[in-house]
């Protein structure tokens, strides 16, 4: 029997798994991180990607670099603490946050209603578009044109949900553990197209210089916020004020120009089903 693997189902599974895990540890899901606890620890633990430039990657010297990384470093500086970066697969982002492996999750965390049921988002600090990428030789104007193609996606990512919703959970959708594996599948010919985002092209060009891959379809615009555990009211308020500050003083604009080569987008004042503050 085929099972539709939607964000709603994933959200329920994550929430139930986390409740069980916390119960075994003698904790409760209601426990929230506080600014004072982070300052007393002297370090803020932030989830970022390790192989998804320009958002988060590792340079030749072993240092974390990228858009999310630079914003996270500003957060640590403002708090007056050290920073510890925690990397992991796309599907591990929410579990890592809810099981206290990180204090903040900033690994290209798209703000969607189902995710907002299990984590607390701030206002957006970045944005991108979720797209289908394929060879210039392939004529693709709608997703139906790609129905019979093998399509790679990172398991559990926004593009996985978008494509599965449109095509159904068909066998030719190939799911990989992370963005880098998905990109490698495309450049090596394992798949004919991939669901990605507008910055995938940077990594595709790095892996296969001179390629003819291009964005074909835009599924949606994605906004990224800093995710904290539910009920982290003080931390959420502090982060929202911090984002306002770095937007106003030009630091966030500088990060956007540095990593994306583009000005900051006009961030939405609200997103349906995704509160920016603790309710």
From TrEMBL:
It comes from Amaricoccus macauensis. Residues 1-32 form the signal peptide. Keywords: Signal. It is found in: Cell envelope. It comes from the Bacteria. InterPro entries: SBP_3_CS, Solute-binding_3/MltF_N. Pfam families: SBP_bac_3. One of its GO terms (cellular component) is cell envelope. Belongs to the bacterial solute-binding protein 3 family. Its main location: other. Residues 43-263 form the Solute-binding protein family 3/N-terminal domain. This is Polar amino acid transport system substrate-binding protein.
